[in-house]
Amino acid sequence: MTLPRGARLAVDVGAVRVGVAASDPDGLIATPVETLARDTSARRTDLAALVTEVTERQVAVVYVGLPMHLSGKEGAASAAARAYAAELAALVSPVEVRLVDERMSTVSAHQALHAAGRAGRKHRSVVDQVAAVVILQSALDHERSRGARAGELVA
To answer: What positions does the domain YqgF/RNase H-like occupy (predicted)?
Structure first.
């Protein structure tokens, strides 16, 4: 099965920041886009910015990282990510929003930044973007190997 062409977007949702990454229309490679400030006010500027990205890039699917414990169980951060993904899905419909396991994405992001010679104290400004890249690249690899979208569809 061949998946429809279109860029993919990945979102790493944190309590303070939201990392964003995108792919090319063929879903070959994930690249960092930006780090948004998490806006819990009624304005929800972070969600508005994501809707703009989805529209401008003609995104086919949005992957939202689902933080899980190493045991595979979900906790409070998982519930927050699920709620965020549901809000986003309502705003970008009919574009699919899917939750993907993001265990170790932030750890991998810190390791990649350290390997690139970036000082630990300077990671904060970009680690969420890099984590989003890790999430998206994992989803793209899944798509290529299985011929199907990764993760759980948000209803």
So the answer is: 6-109
With tokens 């899980």, the residue in question is 68
CA-CA distance, 70 to 21, in Å (whole number)?
24
Query: String of b and e for 81-107 (b: at least 16 CB within 10 Å)?
Result: bbebbeebbeebeebbbbbbbbeebbe
Contact of 50 with 95, CB cutoff 8 Å: no
Averaged confidence pLDDT in the chain = 89
C-alpha 60/C-alpha 9 separation (Å) is: 8
Q: Is the pTM of this model over 0.85?
A: yes
> What is 7-153's CATH number?
3.30.420.140
Question: By the 8 A CB rule, do 63 and 142 touch?
Answer: no
The ranges assigned to domains in the chain are 7-153
Q: d(Cα 32, Cα 12) in Å, to the nearest integer?
A: 11
Across residues 14-43, what is the average pLDDT? Answer: 95
The neighbour count for residue 9, using CB atoms within 10 Å, is 27
For residue 24, give the 3-state DSSP assignment: coil
- Rounded to whole angstroms, the Cα distance separating 67 from 82 reads 10
Q: Residue 7 belongs to what H/E stretch?
A: strand 7-13
